[in-house]
Every structure is written in C-alpha cells, then in structure tokens.
Amino acid sequence: MSISDSDSSSHVGESKTFRQITRDRLLYEMLRSTKTKESKSTWKVLIMDKVTVKIMSYACKMADITEEGVSLVEDLYKRRQPLPSMDAIYFIQPTRENIVMFMSDMSGRSPLYKKAFVFFSSSAQKELVAPIRRDASVMGRLCALSEMNLEYFAIDSQGFVTDHERALEELFGENAEMSQNYNTCINTMATRISTVFASLREFPYVRYRAAKTIDASTLMTLRDLIPTKLAAAVWNYLSKHKSSIADFPQTETCELLIVDRSIDQIAPIIHEWTYDAMCHDLLLMDGNKYVHEVPGKNGSSTEKKEVLLEEHDPVWLELRHAHIGEASEKLHDKMTNFMSKNKAAQIHGRGGGELSTRDLQKIVQALPQYSDQIDKLSLHVEIAGKINNMIREQRLRDIGDLEQDLVFGKAGTTELINFFRTNHNTSRENKLRILMIYAALYPEKFESDKGNKLMQLAGISDDDMIAVNNMRCLMAAQDTKKSSSGFKKLTFEMHKKKPTIREEREGEEQKKWTQFRFYPIMEDLLEKLSKGNLPREEYPCMNDPSPSFHSTPVSTPLRNTNSAPHVPAVSVRSRRGGTWARPRNSDDGYSSDSVLRHASSDFRKMGQRIFVFIIGGATRSELRVVHKLSSKLQREIILGSSSLDDPHTFITKIKMLSQDISLEDLQI
User: Fold this and answer.
1) Where do Polar residues bias regions lie (predicted)?
2) pLDDT for 534-552, tens place per residue?
3) How many whole angstroms separate alpha carbon 200 and alpha carbon 588?
4) Are 614 and 259 in contact (CB under 8 A)?
C-alpha cells in the first residue's frame, strides 16, 4: 500500500499550519507513542482501512512514517503474512466490521502480531469495543486502545474535506428526502467535522444558514434544512467532546459557519483565472497530480513523470493564487533571472571560459539544489505555456469576459444570443457553463420555451440540458412552491425575482485583468462574520454567544478570560503561522517572492480562528479567498467541505441530481 509524498513538513520552533498539526498528531501523538517499554520490537506494522489510509496520505510522507519506526504499511482487508515477532499499530474507523477484522488478527493461539496498539479515527461506541474487552487473549496482547478523533482529510494548510463526493446527490437529489443515505451522509459529515475541533482543541460558536420561507404556499423540506441539521449534529458531537476529551475547551474559542452550495451556484462553474484553478480546470489533473514527459535515461526517448503541485513547492506556493497572466510573466522573469545569474557565476568561476560537459556535471553534483530549482522552474514554465495555448485555442478570454459581464449585470440575453450565433466553434462544455451561469442568475428565463430555444441555439446535448435545469433546481431549494401532494419536488416553477448581481470591487488586480473581477459570495460572508455583521435571522447560532463576543475590535486579539492578562486567546494546540512560509531570500529566481510580501507580523497573535464548511463541494476560488482573508482580517480561516470540486466534476454531480440519470448515461 502506497502513501503519497504530500507536503506536510514541520519546522521546529515555528507556528504550525492546520495540516502540520494534523501531521504531528498522526506521527507523534499516535505512532511515536507506541515506542513504550512494553513494545520490544524496533519496527512495527501499520494497518489501516480505506478511510484512514487517505487521512494519512493527505498529511504525511511515507518517509515520515518510516522514520517513526514503521517498516510495513498494510490494508486491514487484504490477506496479510503473519509476523508474530512484530508489533502492529491499527489506525482504523470504529466500525463493527473493522473490529471483527482486528479480533480475527489478534485473538486465539496464533495471532498475526505479537502486540497491538489500536487507535480509532473517531469516537467509538461502548458496545463496539465490548468484544475486545471480553476476549482475554486479545486483552493480553493489547498495549493501547485509544480514540485519535482525527477523521478528516487535510487537503491544504487551510483546508479539509470530509470525502463525501456524492453529498450533492444524496442531499439535494430528487429522491434525497426518501433516501437512507440522507441521514447517513449528514451524520458522517458531522462526525468528521467534529474531529477537526477535537484535533485543534477548539470549541466553536456554531452558525448556519437558516431555511427561508417565501410565503404561506411554500413548504419547508429536508433539503431546506440541510445546514440546520448538520449544525445540530456537529453541536451534539462537540457537546460530547467537552466531557470526554481531556483539555477540550469548556467555553467557545472560535467560530464555525455552515452553509450549502446553494449560496453560490456560479463559483463552481465560472472560469477562475488563477494559476491553481486553471491547472485543475484545463489540464484535467488527478487531484494534485500532474503528469508530464521528461527526457529518458538514454537521452533519446521520453518517459512520463508524475509530480505533485502542492505547498512544498515554493514556486507553486507563490503563484497558485495569481492570475495566469501574472504567473506567466513572473515565471519568465524568474527563469531569465536564474539563468543569467547562475551562468555568470559559473563563468566567473572558470575565469570567463567556456564550460565543458564535465564541468557542468561537476557543478550539478556540487550544487544539487540548482538541478532541483531548474527542474521546478522548467516544470511551471511548461505548465503555464500549455495553459496559455489552451486559452488562445479555446478563445477563453472572450468566454471569460462574457461570464464576468453576466455576473456583474453588464450583459444579458442579447449578448448571450449574439455569442452563441457567432461562436460556433466554442466547446460544448464551455457553452454549457455559460448557460448554467445564466440559469443561476435568471431562472425565470427558463420557465417557458425561451429556455429550450436558448439551449437549442447553443447546440448542447440532452444531458447538458438536464444540467442547466438542475442548476436552477439547486438554486430553488428555498424558492420552490409546494406540490399538490404536499411534497416539494425539483420543479422549475419559481417565484420571479431580481437576479442576485454581485457588486464589482475595485482593486489593482481587477483593473489589470478584466477576467479577475469575479469573487465568490463566501468572501462577503466571511468579512461580515469577522466584523460581527452577519445577519442573525439568516445565520442563527446554535450556542448564542455572549454580547461581548463580537464587541472586541478585529485588530485586537480576543482574550481568554481564564488566561493571564494580555495573552491572546488561542486553542490548546499550537497556533500556526501564516499560509506563507517564513521570510527567505528570493534572489535566486526560485524561492517564493510572495512569501516576503504577504508575511504577517506574527500569526500567533491573530484573533480567534474562523471555520467555514460548505455542504455540496467547495471551489478553488473559495480556497483562495480563505488564504487572502486570513491576512486581511488577521484571523486564520479554515475552509472545510464535503469535497473540493473542479468545474468538470461539479457539472457531472449536477447532472446526477436527476432521478433517472446514472453515471453510465452521462456524456463525460
């Protein structure tokens, strides 16, 4: 079983990111704790299920795990070789099936391993653990039975998912209200969210988007109540943590806002023009994996190489949230700067003479960091070049301008019709995305034949038409009339209302790049929440905060009443530094320039954390917003969601909302 080498390196003496705290808990609180006097073996076997192996792979490198004395990683459900002289570490979910497998491994006269350390990813019910305690042979071999309360997937230094890829379908689909998956999805999501707070030792004020009623003819349904139900379930688990977890806060230390995808249907499908978003949108990457061709060992043929675009790469760290145009410019400057400076240094070292192949080999061997730097710079130059070619070939600038003009009310039906009539070569997916944006803004336009004619003019397929209609259904979760049967169905008859047009924001980036005007609604919500201006009737609180909670100015760190005077209120876990790395020189054209520009004075002095959770999938633009606002608001913001979706994935999920559509039916 392989564990991906994702970035999670920790720096001694520094404040730690959300992902680093997760990593440290897994490596030190769990793996290192097994190095006891009872355990005689130096090396151990680590056994995980399909969920916990993903948790581990998002946070740790395989080298990190090996360093903590793990020589072998195994799958709980695969046939394993008996290793009776070795101890085993079980990191598993507390399910009946997993405990049965564990008992099978460790009970009887011939156990697979000598001793066992068991760590559950979330709280275990007493009746599930009872069989272990009743079996004398197992108890004699058990060195630890503990709840880690860590069942989330740290995808970023400020982001996590609960790995519910089908949440949109299971919670918002046509038959969601009658499905058994509805409550299961809510409860599992709540369990995993609660383990985030258990890991960070944070106790939040839980706020959520309230269900709205239009008038007496509307009927509130389970779909309207999704954020309310999730907030209640999370609050229930947090209340239990207060009494069951040592040093868990007894008073509120942070804020949590729970919303669903209906707050902003445009963010998942509009073309987001940052380097990060363009990579995932246009290159169809597998998660953060990018595959490119490099020269083979024999020098003639090429071979495929897989790289991870993650935070351990300083070039990626700097450029990921920059407009693709700015990223391309910076990459060109960095490459030019790097080559000129290092070439000059090399020539100077030889007195100005030409460098032979042997000399170059010696330089690379003596300074291996140069090879790594040129490889990374070349990689990003290649990626940016490929993206820019696709932008030109697909005429994405014209598409992007139309999308943004629609969002900000500067274009309407006339401009849309003209675009479809004059741009026949536009891809089917791009035309679909424009129509989905238009349907979210002007749902009433699709109540009659006008919508069908517009879709026919665009030339989209039948299942694409389903996506457009379902887009309006998602938005209509709160605005749909009651059917004659008393149940609210996915219907297209909605109250006419003015479209929600975003107000344009002025800034240097917006002036320089016309496609950089869009911002997700989440940005407004987080700014209002931080300032205490989020409307209570729209976003109530499960645990009403005291009047003084929002009275402290944002610029002043909030205090813990149990602490000594002038000590900022922080969680028990280590407070992290900023998303941006520690100050470092950037003259080599490789290190992150934005590190210096965005470095905060000291993130340990920031106010209380803000957590926001989006049911139904988050976007790259929303992840960008939490990084940006953490610096602006001087509060660390952590984004959680059921999944992190790229446009192609989100469109597929929207199509799945219809009852009669299966994955096999879709044109993907």
Assistant:
1) 545-564
2) 999 999 999 875 443 443 3
3) 37
4) yes
